[in-house]
């Protein structure tokens, strides 16, 4: 056993030392390590406000934890602490003045933060605080997105509701003024909500994607891309949203797969529209009685048909090559063309109607055959053009049914068939996309996309979790040119100008655009090209605005002042130290919307990748796994969780939203079931800790508010532990000088040395977890340490020493007792101090509140450093190098034995209570005697040393004996035995009464059922793990959860079997 311990100790030391160099693997920064075991608090003072000073320095610690009080005042204090003057100065000169830069993904200015934003802030703030406490100048910039489509839609609805006006009634300039007023009125709400969550963003350096500085960057970027030949204007097929009245990019289009006839409600319609069907009708061949049958999902586009196409090798139709068909409505002759690209002989009838103005593939076919483009659907989704007057102005879907009826009357309609259909839906409005031909501005992304994809393939940029890399490659390897113009009024107006019609020199030049940074520059370019003088009012600017993602895609550069580096030394210095970003953390759902655009655009302009590390977190859904949506009424407001809310108010908010009648009833029922008394006040700390703990799941988080309530209890546990400890840490006589804890090692008990070794282990686990972007691992480790090891074990073991009521042989000297007490005080203080620091990135408010008090009662600090007011944010974060000397495998092994024996004794006492409930001792003098039989001299010696602890913790008398020495006989034959190990058994007499025999049988039956249930669950889990695709398809985090659950089940089975063995042995004795 001793040899085994030496091996364990060696492994433990190597484990801590090996993990020292891991941080730079994730964040590309230097670890802030030094050899001292004592962490300095700060390099400069950060004075408390009067309110905070009164609360944490003078007022007694409140008897109960109240987050509404604890979370007041600290946000402003942390902004003071973020000053570079208070930056922690490290002995490691490489880390001195090191910058860690990051930007907060900008929430839309349109509304309030939702739980997804709360998750982003939780993760980024944990990373930011961790770096700050490790000596880095953290530059975490917050901002807001002007959110073109979303913001304009909100203001338009408000304008119509309050004044009955449309934006066209106001005019562009007046409407944009209205949007700015709305933005100024509501934009500040977001920053207030960010404050509620405790984010240490640089509030003195915020950005807004439509502010002057960012607007200059956008104009500069667009003009530069145009001059490089990467921006162009062309009439092409676009994704048009009739509801939003704008074109959108390909990635803003959702593809909804339908397998059969399906009715779907669309915005602005009272009745559902049927999709997932194919309509078959006939075209008559000109000058013939023959017909060609054609399939289409969109009969309403028949008015735009200019040809029908067949495959050149289709023998069924070769005799019709070169002929024409007669249009059912206009009676015009349409050519039969052959096109092997458009037509698949195996699908449908093998004949395809060609509508170049309203289908992307038909458009390409029309280009190949020089066919006309007849537009028959306008931007409002209504029929237009030179068509049958009965159909003019009809909604496209109303016209669909009328066209079918008209074809039926002409005996040209054949049938309707179920047909798998991919429906193109606008991701913002939910309307069906209408392909329309119109001139738009495009960005040629081919080379930029290839570079961004290669960067990930070559390891220049990494994406975590790695499973998302395939999405990155799929998007970039198949990228289309990016349509960046939007038919909106709110946004960055495209910096392109053209001559107004009628202006001198405008002949044949009205479609000639001059892309420039200003009207003056555009006029100069036009004058140079046309050879004549122009006035400013001879030119007009494009009325369209740029896609919001274009401005967002520049943020790693523009947030720090680009492109003004050459004009401003401060901007140049800021960019030099802050770009590239150290990490880009965001939601996996905007990997290609935003992250890919940043990767493409920023490298194009800077020559460097904007970040080397992309960290992606999962989507947050409700606890049933449904996507959170206002239309479903299942959105969780973080402030409701932080501050609490009544059920009545929840229902009122729900009814005031835009939930449909059917979903409203269901949502109300769910709210009443889940929150019968509303949502209790949980606080930001509990919410943050919960969100961090969820990050061990797979690709989504199923958010359960009750879990936040449970973590509020954890915060309360932390509060109570510190409240218990503070009086015990106070010393009567201060030390003449400060003393290092390591000098007290000789006075430490086994429990002291054990908890310090466990502290070393948790410091390693927490740091490794944050460094590897496994925050759930970190929060689980610190929670386990604080609750199960510090509170449940160490504090209980230290009570006799701290209270001075522990009498042991060899400690009759008062000086020795005081030394032992001082060691316990110092150990407990170190554990609480480090625990607050380790927890701080996740639960900043409660840890700051408690740390301010803990630092004032350091039993080893005589320097009065606690008189200097500072923040835990300026304290040094515990790291492996601080704790490596405390790794003590021998203490952990010895303590593990003691804890196992305690568990064994408690298990036996519980079983005896079940078997003989009337035999409970009435006083300490009636304590039962537990016999511990050891077959190993080392184990016997260790347990003899721990005898007082065993008796105190279990409230029994303990008799530790060597097996076979004749003293292991107990006064009764009816004895329960618990095997702690091969070398140690715990024995306890069972008092007899008339019903003991039956109770033994009942307990055996109960435990057999439990063992069977646990075994079945373990077998099912093993079968799942052995599935053919388990290792490939199941996320790594879920596999880790399964492995943890299996270990837990196997432990439960072993414990139950031990209890059964003891009971069966007892049963044989009766």
TrEMBL record:
CDD domains: Anticodon_Ia_Val (cd07962), ValRS_core (cd00817). Residues 752-914 form the Methionyl/Valyl/Leucyl/Isoleucyl-tRNA synthetase anticodon-binding domain. It is found in: Cytoplasm; Mitochondrion. Coiled coil: none annotated. GO terms for cellular component: cytosol; mitochondrion. Keywords: Aminoacyl-tRNA synthetase, ATP-binding, Coiled coil, Cytoplasm, Ligase, Nucleotide-binding, Protein biosynthesis. One of its GO terms (biological process) is valyl-tRNA aminoacylation. Its main location: cytoplasm. The keyword Metal-binding does not apply. Pfam families: Anticodon_1, tRNA-synt_1. It catalyses: tRNA(Val) + L-valine + ATP = L-valyl-tRNA(Val) + AMP + diphosphate. Its EC number is 6.1.1.9. Residues 76-704 form the Aminoacyl-tRNA synthetase class Ia domain. GO terms for molecular function: aminoacyl-tRNA deacylase activity; ATP binding; valine-tRNA ligase activity. PANTHER family: VALINE--TRNA LIGASE, VALYL-TRNA SYNTHETASES. Monomer. Belongs to the class-I aminoacyl-tRNA synthetase family. This is Valine--tRNA ligase, mitochondrial.
